[in-house]
Amino acid sequence: MDTYDVAVIGGGVHGLFSAYAIALRGKKVIVCEQFEFGHLRGSSHGPAKIHHLSFPDPDYVKLAMNALSLWQKIEDEAQVDLIETNGCVDHGSASTISTLVKAMDTHGIASEVLDRSEAKYRWPNLEFDESVVFHPGGGRIYSRATLTALHGLCINLGVEMREFFEVKNMFDDRDGAKILEGERESIKASVVVSCAGAWTGELLEGVLDIPKPKVSQEQYLYFTSRDPGAIWPNIYHHGEVTYYCKEAPGVGIQVGGVRQGTYIERIEDRDFVIDPLVAIQVCDYAEKFMPGLDPHPTSSETCIASFSKNGDFIVDRVGNLVVVQACQQMGFTFSPIIGKYAADLATESQFSQLRFRLP
Ligand SMILES: Cc1cc2nc3c(=O)[nH]c(=O)nc-3n(C[C@H](O)[C@H](O)[C@H](O)COP(=O)(O)OP(=O)(O)OC[C@H]3O[C@@H](n4cnc5c(N)ncnc54)[C@H](O)[C@@H]3O)c2cc1C
Q1: How far is the CA of 108 from the centre of ligand 1 (A)?
Q2: Which of 107, 119, 258, 312 is deepest in the core (most CB within 10 A)?
Q3: Distance set, CA 142 to CA 147, 157, 272 (Å)
Q4: Ligand 1 cavity residues, CB under 6 Å
């Protein structure tokens, strides 16, 4: 049986960043991915994700700042542009925006508060809610390019990248290592890092007694700009539903809602079908707040999201198992630092972030 220092389950962004960070520490690592790398069935696919620093909780602002410096490092390593700092606009009620500003101020993040008419003057293609804040340090991450770059960096470090290896079962052997059983083969690893995203509940059933994350199928639509030269900032509009918008170069302007999708009990219940009612809500929203868009969507996509009970990420270790669960529909931003924490736990058993421990 092949043996490894560390086996990472899941080839999404968290699995790849974790594998990379662990391999950098000289460990023999394998990544087990049930589908092909870069598949469209999880959370990490798609051309672009928003990177922002505007969180209501100052701890997350700090974490996003720390992640940003690691993003710059990984770009240098891979010699490819992965993150573009083209600014982020948040708008909503005055109290919501003031909370975001306060949290950013705590960590010295430059931001500019605008009223509705000032914002409209700057971005005539948009309509705004009561209060607006722009932080130039936000931006977008080229997510597909990130997965490709990390895959290459892992291979360069000798990580074994195994696709179509679904871990069906895992248990401890007599030496205290873990055996991972797939359909046709088994492997052995001293430490396992679970980065199974929305599959975490199913993967760890009977292995570790932890609260199952809530899983939903989310969706977003792509629109085109009426004015091809218009500037589309990255946007979060905090309302009853929080809507986001980002331009994915060459694809269109992506608009979707946070936690607007349907919760599913088991991941097999996911159907990849666009919910027409939600699509209508997104189109209505775009028509009202994004008059610079042609309101007829050109394409759409589904994406699976997972949410912990208390809203925090999970990065913790129990025995020889490290558990990473960091979606909350905002986890890509933090992925390099989450990967570092997973590597700390896998190699040194260091609990660097008490906040992210399992309940
Ligand atoms: C609609 C939507 C929009 C988002 N927008 C943003 C954004 O703008 N900014 C941002 O920062 N974040 C955003 N996010 C969040 C971000 O996409 C996620 O936090 C991140 O992609 C999670 O990565 P992951 O590696 O944990 O999960 P995944 O990418 O789902 O990877 C998990 C992997 O584990 C594999 N796997 C599972 N079980 C097994 C098994 N038993 N054996 C082998 N392999 C297994 C799966 O096949 C999968 O490839 C968004 C999320 C959604 C859903």
Answers
A1: 30
A2: 119
A3: 9, 22, 23
A4: 9-15, 32-35, 42-44, 49-50, 166-167, 195-199, 203, 218, 220, 256, 303, 305, 326-327, 329-333
